[in-house]
Structure formats: structure tokens, C-alpha cells
Fold this sequence. Notes:
The chain is of the alpha+beta class. Helix content is about 45%, strand content about 30%.
Amino acid sequence: MHPLVGELTLRYETLALPGDQEQSLSTYHAEPGSPSAEALRLLAGWGADAARQRSASSSAR
Length: 61
């Protein structure tokens, strides 16, 4: 459940890192074309917008 876009249905994979049994990498993804995929796209856009605003604000100082 995400506070801005609601419920997300995600699949995940956990990959073992060669040579280090104590660490792994987990990736999460939504089914292409699903409402969850659209919600992730929306969140990514908001994140990019926020980063641009922070960058512009820092440059103005």
C-alpha cells in the first residue's frame, strides 16, 4: 500500500551475489500494462519532478 497511489501488486526476484552469501539483490516489478505498472510510472515521474525542483533550487542559491 502506497500513500499516494494506493495498493501495488508487485513481483520480486532475489538474486544471490557471487562470492558473498550474506548479501543479495532484490528487484521488484509490476506486470506490464497493469494498474500497478501505471502507478509506478506515475511515482517515477513525481520523483523526477522533485529532483529537478531540488536541482533548480540549489542552482538559484
